[in-house]
Amino acid sequence: MNSLxxxxxxLSADFxxxxxxxxxxxAGGAEWVHVDVMDGHFVPNLTLGPVVLEGLAKAVPAFYxxxxxxxxxxxxxxxFAKAGANLVSFHLEAAMDPSxxxxxxxxxxxxxxxxxxxGRAPEELFPYLDRVDLVLVMSVWAGFGGQSFREDTxxxxxxxxxxxxxxxxxxxxxxxGGINAKTSRQVRDMGADTLVAGTSVFGAxxxxxxxxxxxx
Length: 216
Description:
- This protein has helices spanning 18-27, 50-59, 73-83, 98-106, 153-166, 181-189, 199-202, 207-215, and strands at 5-8, 32-38, 63-69, 87-91, 111-116, 134-138, 172-176, 194-197.
- By secondary structure, the chain is of the alpha/beta class.
- The radius of gyration is 16 Å and the shape is globular.
- It has a single domain (5-215), classed as TIM Barrel (Alpha-Beta Barrel).
- It contains 8 helices and 8 strands, in the order βαβαβαβαββαβαβαα.
- The model has no long low-confidence stretch (mean pLDDT 96).
- Helix 2 (50-59) packs parallel to helix 3 and helix 5 packs parallel to helix 6 (181-189).
- An 8-stranded parallel sheet has the order 1-8-7-6-5-4-3-2.
């Protein structure tokens, strides 16, 4: 069984003091740093490019978990790998041939993840579970802010967790969207071992306490 990893999303950080903000969540107990990349095409918002990660990774050594919400995941995955990503995840619906993207990213010496939005069945990830290091279940629609945690998320997480356990795989199971002290417990109980949290961590006055609450 994988140990629990908390991955605060820098989208909720203060970009005027990004390095300091990232240092604070790592000091507060976070294991990973989550980097949301949106291209304005696959999703209707723009976030950041490889140059931001490159600067951040040089300033603050950490495990950088990059979530690509882009229409060309292999090309951008290569760029983020070179910029300092440790793990690159891409959306199943963004790739005509997910296997070729997985193979291409492996050549960049990064771990690889595969992501599904709420509209996709968890079973669609089953053929890839032994080929990726992580699967990410979105508990909100990717690329849109202000959404509520979807009530069907724990069931979807459980479906994947049971299949991972049945096949005795070490694939990590991540959840992203609306994660707080309450919802983290719901998905952990169903088998999630990696939690992405934005506002609930970066928006807290005591970030160490906020991270501890996600584990409680």
